[in-house]
Amino acid sequence: MTQHFDLLVRGGTVFDGTGAPGRLADVGVLGDRIAAIGDLAGATADTVVEAAGRAVAPGFIDVHTHDDRALLSNPDMAMKTSQGVTTVVVGNCGVSLSPLAIDRRPPPPLDLLGAEEWYRYPRMADYMAAVDAAPAAVNAACLVGHATLRVGAMDDLLRPATPAEINNMKERLAEGLAAGAIGMSTGLFYRPANAAPTEEIIALAELLEPAGAIYTTHMRDEGEGVMDSLHESFRIGREAGVRAIISHHKVIGTPNFGRSEETLALIEHTRTRQDIGLDCYPYVAASTVLDSSRLERCSRVMVTWSVKHPEVSGRDLSDIAAEWGISQLEAVDRLNPAGAIYFMMDEADVRRILSYPHTIVASDGLPHDSHPHPRLWGTFPRVLGHYSRDVGLFPLEEAVRRMTGLPAERFGLTGRGRLAVGAHADITVFDPATVIDSASFEKPATPAAGIDRVIVNGRAVWADGAPTGAHPGRLLRRQDLQAA
């Protein structure tokens, strides 16, 4: 009997997400699941994608995003689907859109997600219901942000939380976990959370282990104190009994160039003793809110947005200050609230961290910046085309694993990140010979080359160089993932 599928991806080289070499095979999809992989000659389908000469991979998983609001305000999610991403994890760096409702401008870095009108979800269940009601093109899993908890519980963020405030945060974190959040994130570098002692984080993280949830962290210090911050992060995971993920691992500032040898040695030593992980993005520049404390560590600073002076977005801070006839420190004060790109890492460290076999590829893109860091549009094709194909850091099958099977396993995203019979039909078809990032620091919102078709839950969301308009993404709740 002739097999018939809803969708048939025919004649491509399948990279299944495990790190195994590619093999010629067809992929048949029924509904939202992969129904067959192999030689499906003679099979028919409602839609056939001819993939000869193309790589067929699981949809890429971006575990470090700030897409909480973008899922609602920009549901096509073209900045992600255009580079092959089918699932995002939101709520990173201690910043989540919920659980929080406020009537004033949120403090940096919470304002990276939007002004007070976007902080209108007092419970995680409220935010998830909003995403359910208006699905996006991609799937999403949620972290509860520690800074968000602090802003909702405290009248003064520049001190440790009191026992009563910690209890308030515990109650709201527990609600988020009950609603389906996969874990909690911290951003201990940032002002709203920097005064929190390690014990405050452990007290909250203790709620994660019974739920089978994870802990992710933008560490307290990625410069001179990077080793102490790694030890603190591992202590939190160890004492709370949870997996600890180091977000966007890097070493910043010229005096620290080369120290990734030291940090990776500690990570490898610790990995054999407790459950940890890490992600990174493939660029020598970081991006976040505009902060004068970072200036001395940077060779260049580019302004990405400014509430008071939106006309300077995309320009170097040094040029703005010179034009205004003031110092760069004075320019920062005049521009804030604002965001920036900071050139502060060494290429050798970026390559070393990317080459470490347990490093997940993730973007840390900021979707609401007027002139965003190019990682928002270019991270995954940059690794596939530049670092894997052109530089040769690792073979294509390993690059795919870092974007699919590895993040799915580390973040508990069951049924995603693999091409296997029964798995969800999240599929990216790309040309391994031409795939490359097109986004630059000068023109950051530029779709990548070589991404042919992106499929989420069996439906195409990116094809022929544009969004299809389909929004088949789903909110991935932890309880459902654990039961799968």
Automatic annotation (TrEMBL):
Pfam families: Amidohydro_3
Extent of the signal sequence: none
Gene3D superfamilies: D-aminoacylase. Domain 3, Metal-dependent hydrolases, Urease, subunit C, domain 1
Domain Amidohydrolase: 48-193, 321-461
InterPro entries: Amidohydro_3 (IPR013108), D-aminoacylase_insert_dom_sf (IPR023100), Metal-dep_hydrolase_composite (IPR011059), Metal_Hydrolase (IPR032466), Metallo-dep_Hydrolases_sf (IPR050378)
One GO MF term attached to the UniProt entry: hydrolase activity, acting on carbon-nitrogen (but not peptide) bonds, in linear amides
Top-rank taxon: Bacteria
GO cellular component, one term: cytosol
Protein name (Swiss-Prot/TrEMBL): N-acyl-D-amino-acid deacylase
Species for this entry: Stella humosa
Taxonomic lineage: Bacteria, Pseudomonadati, Pseudomonadota, Alphaproteobacteria, Rhodospirillales
